[in-house]
Every structure is written in C-alpha cells, then in structure tokens.
C-alpha cells in the first residue's frame, strides 16, 4: 500500500477540525444541517476546497454557502490554533450534491419496491 501524500493527510486533518468547529462553535443558523464531505488540499498546502452537502432547496444551499464564507476567517484562525502548519490553507467552500442524489435515489428505490411488491386489488 502506498503511503498517503502530505496533502491528503492535511486534508483529512482539516476536515476533522472543520467538522468539529462547524458543529460546536458556529452559531450561524444558515449553516445548520450541513455536512462536510471532503477537503481537497493543493500540493503546496496553500489552498483547500471544502465540500459540503445540504439536503434542501437551492436557496438553502446559497444561504449555507454565504454563512460558511462569512465564517471563513474564524474557521481559518481556529484551524491555525488547532493544527501545527506553517501556512493555514485558504478555504474555498463548494456544494457537494452527492447526499441529495443519494437521498433521491433511495426514495425512488423505495417507491419502486412498493410498486413491485404490492398486490393489485388489496
């Protein structure tokens, strides 16, 4: 097995710390219900794309993105205090629709199961 690159290890660590910060420290109601799904850190560890998922409509996603962007300075400072890095990566938040697609697929499969296994006339 190949060892993980430093960027991947830093990304995993940043994801863990960000998830803790969002869950415990952020009081902004716009970020309520989000799930952080991944962090991609550049090879030079200067930039990090943080992916989040939210089951809701497009307006809620836009509000969550605005809430995360407004908390960016606080989150970056807290990561700097928690993680021993020479440079804390700049955070860029992106919406990840994979949980929404999974939820939609689950509903479709459940409906299909109900349609197939129901006996007509009962």
Description:
The protein is α+β, with helices and mostly antiparallel strands and 122 residues long. It has one domain: GMP Synthetase, Chain A, domain 3, CATH 3.30.300. It contains 4 helices and 3 strands. The chain has helices at residues 6-24, 58-70, 72-82, 98-117, and strands at residues 35-41, 47-53, 90-95. The chain has a 3-stranded mixed sheet with strand order 1-2-3. A hairpin with a 5-residue loop joins β1 (35-41) and β2. α1 crosses α3.
Question: How is this structure best summarized?
Answer:
The protein has 122 residues and is α+β, with helices and mostly antiparallel strands.
Task: Please describe the topology of this protein.
Elements: H1 6-24, E1 35-41, E2 47-53, H2 58-70, H3 72-82, E3 90-95, H4 98-117
Parallel strand pairs: 2-3
Antiparallel strand pairs: 1-2
Helix pairs in contact: 1-3
CATH architecture annotation: 2-Layer Sandwich
- Order the strands across the largest sheet as they lie in space: 1-2-3
Mean pLDDT: 87
What is the class in the CATH system?
Alpha Beta
The CATH homologous superfamily: K homology (KH) domain
| Radius of gyration (Å) | 19 Å
**Count of the separate structural domains:** 1
Which terms would index this structure?
122 residues; alpha+beta; GMP Synthetase, Chain A, domain 3; three-stranded mixed beta sheet; 4 helices; elongated
